[in-house]
Amino acid sequence: MNSVCVIGLGYVGLPLALSFAMKGYKVYGVDSNPDLIGELKRGETHHLESYKGKTIQEILRQQLQNGNFVPMLDYKEALGACEDIIVTVPIPVYGGKPYYEYLILCAREIKENLRPGQLILLRSTVVPGTTRNIFLPVLEESGLKCGRDFYLAYASERIAEGRAFEEFENMPTALAGFCEVSTERAVDLIKVICRAEVVVASSFEVVETAKVIENLQRDINIAMVNEFERFTKAMNLDIFEVIKVANTHKRVNLLYPGPGVGGFCIPNAFYYLNAKAEEIGVELKLSKTARMFNEGIPAYISDLVIKTMEKYSTSKKVAVLGIAMKDYSSDDRLSPALEIIEILRQRGVEVKAFDPAVKKEYEFKVNTLQEALEKVEVVLILARQHGIDFEKIFEFIPPQKAIVIDTRDVFTSKQAQEKGFVLEKI
Ligand SMILES: NC(=O)c1ccc[n+]([C@@H]2O[C@H](COP(=O)([O-])OP(=O)(O)OC[C@H]3O[C@@H](n4cnc5c(N)ncnc54)[C@H](O)[C@@H]3O)[C@@H](O)[C@H]2O)c1
């Protein structure tokens, strides 16, 4: 039976591990978080992925039952059983600086257990140069030589949360190996789960840099459309309609504005590129401006809420619908919603927030739409979720009293006019 070890069982690693398991691989899933391993062993996950009509919860339970997926804390057992090892541990950004410790700890654990013939495929998003200059030297502390005794490749991960299974399968994978054998082994491994093209690049650095700029161009695009939004708002135009019209041009692909940029990938991209840029003496003026602009959006939205309350002389209470960092996601890491809520609370606004997909508990979080909407007039929409029926807002607040601040294009002005509520769109 073929086997593979996947290290880091988060938003990427878990569905990746299960994709191999569904292909009949024995997958040893390693994670350093004991609570997570406990949950996975019980068949529990809060992820919102699905594949061919099955939820990730169903897939997880099935693959645990048939023995194809074995979650564990122990590197030794997992690495002892596999020739191929995939790494998906994160490099968070703290205070604008990438923090390599999780990746280094992971490399040290691999080094302790490394055997001749093994392939290590790094899939984390990294600062360009990390695979060669940070990851590889730790592995070689084992005394084994890369390209002779063991093999190393880098393949960027391009999935969007919520579409992970489908995108592992159908998104082209960019990959580079340390040597020919590393590349061949890594391509063969990726092809187990990826039907799309595997794009082989000339070096780790090409793929690492391509991945970071793929994310950064989205950050810049979002900053741009949020700037356009300020213009269209002053013109009394609906930015979402303007963008829909602009995007009918075949060579235009504008993203949509929103309450800010969250999650693990896009906000970190500038800091990954900038870490290397500073080292090599390059200034990233445009990228930095875009990042700073995006970091200022939560304050802009909070201002909009307060100004709206003042304009309509409402109480300083708001129902926030959606805490996740984007629509239909359970991920609230670096979510702009959390920042908006914090600013509003600091400015004396009472916040009740509802998001049935987000697992984490907060003191301002309530469990039902009704609780969020009790005794409020102002409703702030920050993310769509399958468990939030926005039409129901008007069952709890009479439309003539409701003031909806919509950052996600849930409602049109026509609907607002027909129903009789006030709609403030970004
Ligand atoms: N989330 C996405 O949509 C996405 C998309 C593309 C790329 N990526 C990249 O993939 C990587 C993983 O992201 P994620 O969203 O899955 O992160 P995550 O935080 O959801 O999961 C990472 C997991 O790694 C574990 N971990 C940390 N250090 C470890 C160690 N030394 N040994 C074993 N386990 C360890 C953590 O406990 C956690 O469960 C990141 O580099 C990210 O930038 C993420």
Account of the 3D structure:
With 426 residues, the protein is α/β, with parallel strands linked by helices. The protein has 3 domains: 3-202, 3-Layer(aba) Sandwich (Rossmann fold); 203-295, Rossmann fold (3-Layer(aba) Sandwich), CATH 3.40.50.720; 296-426, NAD(P)-binding Rossmann-like Domain (Rossmann fold, 3-Layer(aba) Sandwich). It is built from 17 helices and 18 strands. The protein has an 8-stranded mixed beta sheet with strand order 5-2-1-6-9-10-11-12, sandwiched between helices. A 6-stranded parallel beta sheet has the order 15-14-13-16-17-18, sandwiched between helices. Helix 16 (393-396) links the parallel strand 16 and strand 17. Helix 5 runs parallel beside helix 6. The longest helix is centred in the middle third of the chain and has 31 residues, at 204-234. The mean pLDDT is 97. The site of nicotinamide-adenine-dinucleotide (NAD) has 26 residues, from helix 5.
The 3D shape can be described as: globular
What oligomeric arrangement do these chains adopt?
A: single chain
Distance between the termini: 54 Å
CATH architecture of the largest domain: 3-Layer(aba) Sandwich
Total helix count? 17
CATH topology of the largest domain: Rossmann fold
Relevant terms:
426 residues; alpha/beta; Rossmann fold; six-stranded parallel beta sheet; 16% strand; binds nicotinamide-adenine-dinucleotide
Short description:
With 426 residues, this protein is of the alpha/beta class. The protein is built from 17 helices and 18 strands. The protein is globular and about 70 Å long.
